[in-house]
Design goal:
Radius of gyration: 17 Å
Helix content: 25-40%
CATH architecture: 3-Layer(bba) Sandwich
Distance between the termini: 33 Å
Mean pLDDT: 93
Largest sheet: 6 strands, mixed
Structural class: alpha+beta
Number of domains: 1
CATH superfamily: Phenylalanyl-trna Synthetase, Chain B, domain 3
Length: 233
């Protein structure tokens, strides 16, 4: 089930998707949906079979000269990453090497397939661990950030771009999310987003998001709502 809304009520507070104008001017746009009622487990046979079919096609992809991946890399270098590897490129290279897509859990696997197919950066976060609005902004250098799998906070440089809530970085650049909001089998509600660049405009992101939402509802159940992007100063 799908419904388009401007904001999703989470804990009594309306969550908005805000993208700063300076990032939008750089080509960074975002498509987002919120989910509830999905059943998240480690793996299921039907999804593993579907992943196997997709992996055969993904492993045959030629990444040479891909403009979407090249633009993600350019943005990351501009933000100070010495050797950028966009998430989709990493997924494709893993699939080429292992002849299969990685397994994290059923929700992450559902969006990783679409990321590898479309070359787009896609992420998801537990809504019950998000405070306030979801914002894509340029960092000031003092933001709170605990990388996925870490226990200690990591220093963030000024001039990077990040997905944040009102207290912390949810995903630094489009490379690594935070520990606090990772999707687990205990997650009840979550948001999933597709982050683009100049060679991946908003309509492409929206189509990819629909594919992600279809995968999740097919293999995990649940319902979702689209949250419209708002460009802010």
């Amino acid at each position: 089930m799908r419904r388009i809304v401007n904001a999703r009520l989470v804990g009594g507070t309306a969550v908005r998707l805000l993208v700063s104008k300076d990032l939008s001017d750089k080509g960074i746009e975002v498509a987002m949906a919120t989910f509830s009622g999905a059943n998240i487990v480690n793996k299921i046979a039907a999804l593993e079979r579907f992943k196997k079919e997709k992996a055969e096609k993904i492993a045959a992809e030629d990444l040479f000269g891909n403009q979407i991946l090249a633009e993600y890399s350019r943005l990351q270098r501009e933000a100070g990453v010495a050797e950028p590897i966009p998430p989709a490129q990493w997924l494709i290279e893993i699939t080429k090497r292992n002849r299969r897509l990685p397994n994290i859990n059923t929700v992450v696997d559902c969006y990783n397939m679409v990321s590898a197919e479309t070359y787009l950066s896609i992420g998801a976060h537990d809504l019950d661990r998000i405070l306030g609005n979801v914002r894509f902004v340029t960092t000031q250098g003092g933001e709170r950030y605990t990388p996925l799998g870490a226990k200690e906070k990591e220093k963030v440089n000024a001039g990077e771009y990040a997905c944040m809530d009102d207290e912390k970085i949810l995903c630094r650049l489009d490379l690594k999310q935070c520990e606090e909001t990772k999707i687990t089998k205990d997650t009840k509600r979550f948001m999933v987003y597709v982050q683009g660049n100049r060679h991946a405009p908003l309509d492409l992101l929206q189509h990819a998001l629909e594919d992600v939402c279809h995968n999740i509802t097919t293999f995990c159940g649940g319902t979702y709502e689209i949250v419209n992007e708002e460009i802010v100063p």
